[in-house]
Amino acid sequence: MPHDKKRERTNKDISFFFFFFFSLLKCNYKKIFVNTYTLSNRAGGYIKNCTINNFEALAEHAVAQCYIKSTGAVEAIKKKVKANDEFAQVTITNCTQGITPLLGQQATIPAGSMQVFSFDVYSENPLQSSHTCVVGLYDSMEKLIDNITIQFTSYALQTDKVTYYYYYYYYSFISFSI
């Protein structure tokens, strides 16, 4: 008889334990919360090549072409706050004096593929000079992944000598006659 009573107590204790355990699981399940809006895919990438052709200052503009290779396994897209917020951002900054500032560009790059970014580069300096700019690649979390420095030359502005002398003498005549 004492053995049966002991067995009954054990069964009651076990049932109470399971009830208590499952009620804890139920409470903990309600407290588990995952915010899916903060999740984002970060894919790697690198700048394969970036070139700017030499050009004549003030008369022409150059086109900078940057080839970006995605090394991620999935297409990485930044969370959609605005329609423009996407994976890769390429910027050209820290250019030497005389180069107008350039706006960055954003694009979604599919996994393992290459994307070409094109920028129009203008020089404000009429004299021949060599320039450098820094090209930066940022991921969807706006973290710098890769950067390179590119070099190019803007040639002196070629002017017609007759037109130059005409303007020079015309404006000097007006300034002295007044």
> Helix amount, in percent?
25-40%
CATH fold call of the largest domain: Immunoglobulin-like
User: How would a textbook summarize the main sheet?
Assistant: 5 strands, mixed
Number of domains: 2
- CATH architecture annotation name of the largest domain: Sandwich
**Mind telling me the CATH superfamily name of the largest domain?**
Immunoglobulins
Tell me the total number of β-strands.
8
Principal-axes geometry comes out as elongated
Mean pLDDT across residues: 72
Number of helices: 2
Strand content: 25-35%
Instruction: Note the gap between the termini.
Output: 130 Å
What order do the SSEs take from the amino end to the carboxyl end, as H and E? HEEEEEEEEH
Low-confidence stretches: 78-86
Level-1 CATH class name of the largest domain: Mainly Beta
The neighbouring-strand order within the major sheet is: 2-8-7-4-5
Helix and strand content put the structural class at alpha+beta
Radius of gyration (Å): 33 Å
GO molecular function: lipid binding
Keywords: Cell membrane, Disulfide bond, Fertilization, Lipid-binding, Membrane, Signal, Transmembrane, Transmembrane helix
Pfam families: HAP2-GCS1 (PF10699)
InterPro entries: HAP2/GCS1 (IPR040326), HAP2/GCS1_dom (IPR018928)
Task: For this entry, give a set of tags.
five-stranded mixed beta sheet, single chain, Immunoglobulin-like, alpha+beta
